[in-house]
Write a structure and sequence with these properties.
Length: about 200
């Protein structure tokens, strides 16, 4: 006699504002500390949106071997650009951001090439933009540029994370969105988007 099918697992309840992070046990999920950092960027974008500041940002976040943030994120890669960057400029910006955040590498050789392989170093790209909580062509353009930049620098690429004012997602699993609950009466701290 056939075994009855197992009922589908219900979706997990929305996370509380005190811990809006995905399940870290799921393969490919963001480290909880990285998830908190991306979540904070959603709250910051919400504040900027209320002030009618809609400029997107992109930052490189150095990671430790476990995938947790391992230092300060880069400055906004888009701060000095006007308009939407093309593919070549995205690659150049990502390479510059990687060089900035990975210069603290204890294995770096000051006399060697700045682009020598650093297989022990990982980094993620976090883009913050207005718009829907779904993938857009610009998100994929950043992902392509990110993979090339990591190959140039010799860093191990972590996924691109896209944050909007609704929530965020890992671009490699865009269907697994994290909707960030609204906070009432408290400010969020993460990496700011004030330097444009």
């Amino acid at each position: 006699m056939p075994t009855p099918p197992t009922p589908p697992t219900p979706p997990s309840p929305a996370a509380s504002p005190s811990a809006p992070v995905p399940d870290g046990s799921r393969p490919g999920s963001a480290h909880p500390d990285l998830a908190r950092l991306v979540t904070a960027s959603v709250w910051i974008l919400r504040g900027e949106t209320r002030r009618r500041a809609f400029a997107p940002s992109a930052r490189v976040v150095p990671l430790d071997p476990a995938g947790a943030p391992a230092g300060d994120p880069s400055t906004n890669l888009l701060a000095a650009t006007a308009g939407e960057p093309d593919h070549a400029l995205r690659v150049d910006l990502a390479v510059a951001g990687l060089d900035r955040v990975l210069t603290g590498d204890p294995d770096a050789d000051a006399a060697g090439s700045p682009h020598r392989p650093r297989p022990s170093r990982r980094a993620a790209l976090v883009t913050v933009r207005p718009g829907p909580l779904e993938t857009l062509d610009d998100d994929h353009a950043w992902s392509r540029a990110w993979l090339i930049a990591c190959a140039i620098v010799g860093a191990q690429p972590h996924p691109v994370y896209v944050a909007t004012r609704i929530g965020w997602f890992d671009l490699t699993v865009p269907s697994a969105t994290v909707v960030v609950p609204r906070l009432r009466g408290s400010g969020a701290r993460g990496f700011g988007h004030g330097s444009r």
